[in-house]
Structure prediction request, 333 residues.
Amino acid sequence: MAWLLIISSVIVIWIASLLKILHGSYSPSKGAFLNDSNNGGGAKKKKALLVVAHPDDESMFFTPTINYLTSRGHNIHILCLSVGDADGKGNTRKDELYKASATLKVPHQQVKILDHPDLQDGFGNMWNHNLVAKIVEEEVISHGINLILTFDNYGVSGHCNHRDVHYGVRKLLNASSQRNIEAWELVSTNIFRKYSGPVDIWLSNIYSMQCSNQMLHCLVNEQPRKSFRAMAQHASQWVWFRKLFVAFSSCTYVNMLRKMNFTASGTTFQCWPAYCWNPEGVRLAEFILNYNIYWWYLNSHLYGSVPHAGSGLVFERLLLFATERENIKDVVH
Prediction:
C-alpha cells in the first residue's frame, strides 16, 4: 500500500509539473539569463554558438536553451563537429539536423556540420582538444560570436565525444585572446534527476537559487512540444527508446546552465555539488589519457562511496602475494 501511495504521488507531481510548463505558469527564480526580461528589455542581443558533437544533440539536450534564445531575439548558430556516421548514416543525419534546426527556428545558413577525419562519431574515438579549439575559434571569429554554449565535462550522457567538445571549448577559452567570450555549460545531473522529466524544474530552481552572483541559471522549456517535433526530424534515430528518453529526460523540460570561469591555470567551477564535476576526468585530459579505459573507475566514484581506508588498483595485493608479506602496508609506499 505504501508503494502504491508513493507511485501515485510521483505520477501526480509529474503531471502537475508538466501542466505548469504547458500553461506557462512557471516563473524562473532569480535574475533573467543574459539580463533578458520578458518584455524584451534593453539588453544587447547575443551572437550565440551552440557547440555539439553529433546531429540530434541539439534536440535531445539543448532545446530549452535554444527556445529561450530564439524567443528573445538572440542570434544563434549551431556547430556540429561530426555527421554522426558511427552507423554509416552520416549523410542522412546531416540532412536531419538541418530539418530539426528549422523546427527550432535556427536558419539553415547558421548551421555548420563537419565531417573531419579526426572527428568521427564513436565511443572509441577520442577527439583532439586542440583541433576542436581551433575549429571553434574559427567559427567565433567568422561570425563575431560572443556567447558559447556546450556540454560540461561529463557531457550529460558521459559520451567521450561530448566530453571532448567541452575540453576543446575550455582550451579555447583559456587562451588570453578569447577572454571576452562568455561561455555556459549544460550541467549534468545524477540518474534520478536525469529521468525525472518535468519534476526536475523544481530541483533545478532550488539549486539555482542557492548560487549567488548569477553563476547558475535554470531555463525552463517554454515549448516542450517543439522538443518532440525537432527530435522527430531525426527519423533515423527516432526509435522507441529515444522516444522514451525525450519523454522522461529532464533536458526536454529544463536546462541548468553554469557559467564557465577560467583562470590561467585552468577551469574554476563554482556553486555546484562535487558529484557533478569529476576532477579525475580533468586530470585524464591533462595527461592525454584515454577516458574509455578509465571510465568505469571514475563512474564508480561519481556519486560518492562508502567509508573506507583507501582504494587501489589491485597492484598492491599482487605485491603482497609475491613478497609473502603479512600486511599490505608493507608494500604500499
Residues 263-280 have pLDDT under 50 and may be disordered.
